[in-house]
Amino acid sequence: MSAAAPYLVEARALTKTFDTRRGLVDRLFQRRDYLVRALHAVDFGIRRGETLGLIGESGCGKSTLARVLVRLEEPSAGRIVFDGEDITAAPAADLKRLRRRMQIVFQDPYTSLNPRQSVETIVGLPLAIHRGLSRRAARDEIVAMLERVGLGAAHLNRFAHQFSGGQRQRIGIARALIVKPEFVVCDEPVSALDVSIQAQILELLAELRRELGLTFLFIGHNLSVVGYVSDRIAVMYLGELVEVGTAAEVLAAPRHPYTQGLIAAVPRVTGRGANARVRARGEPASPLRPPAGCHFHPRCPHAMELCRAQAPRLREIEPGRTVACHLYDQGPG
Fold first, then answer.
1. Which of 121, 167, 179, 226 could form a disulfide with 163 if both were Cys (CB 3.0 to 4.6 A apart)?
2. What is the DSSP string of 134-177?
3. pLDDT, tens digit, for every residue of 79-109?
4. Is the dihedral of CA 68, 73, 76, 82 positive or negative?
5. What is the rounded distance in angstroms from the CA atom of residue 140 to the CA atom of residue 167?
């Protein structure tokens, strides 16, 4: 894919903060530890037709980014640009138009489908909303989409509880693709599935991408899965991107210490047949009270005084490769 290919989706300094105050006491006394900065100044772009993988530990902000990017959550600051149009504050009428072009496949197929609706209703609802089609008028398109994801007309009148996890996720994919979107967010779409079923869903997504020319943001925490489906990988830690590069580069030669720790933590079989696991020391800090300077410095084996005092910026260290780490402040290397 050409590096000059235009971006279909861009996040520019995207920030999301949640107010966690719940009770009267919290509000009266203005507790200082109530703001969670789930995303902070996130910058990236996704080119037409590519898959950008997003990895990081649980709670780092990946799903929040997914929801903000498609305006299911409102950003606190920054901009979202879709096909050259700033949609950060797009009104409801414009959002309805945009929903046909950007869709999401949710993580858990057991909770993302309405148990009271048939498959025909679930998959056909977007056609009713966006094109005003009745169930009867939409039936041929619904059946065609179900067949495309490995199901068929025999499944139209069944309900979610009658399907396996993999089949439910196929229904979720059909629902997302029925309006022919250009951009699809896949928020950990295989993490709730058995390993054997994961492979089938990944192959299906790859096939649909090729056939339909889709652009994907693929979110996950399994490096092997994300590396398999992605052209490029972005690594997130405590709401910030710390490394972005091609999948091959990031997995073969990670540059940020956090990325190195993620890859080192993947189980490997030693000569004795045991699993060797090496992790970054400690646990991620609370997003309520992130460390000063580089958020990763308490866990980093290379931390310097500068890391404790000053947050590094995401900078290009070589063409197409960006890293937020003071180890590279003096240039490539």
1. 167
2. -HHHHHHHHHHHHHHTT--GGGTT-BGGGS-HHHHHHHHHHHHH
3. 999 999 999 999 988 888 898 999 999 988 8
4. positive
5. 20
Q: CA separation (Å) from 80 to 20, 60, 67, 140, 177? A: 24, 20, 12, 35, 22
Rg value, the chain, Cα: 21
For residue 136, which phi and psi values (nearest 5 degrees)? -65, -45
Closest CA to 202 of 227, 176, 234, 225: 225
User: Is the pLDDT at 277 greater than 50, yes or no?
Assistant: no
Q: Which helix (H) or strand (E) holds 218?
A: strand 215-219
Token look-up 């398999």 returns 228
pTM score, whole prediction: 0.89
Q: Is 64 in contact with 39 (CB distance < 8 Å)? A: yes
Choose among 98, 229, 121: nearest CA to 174.
121
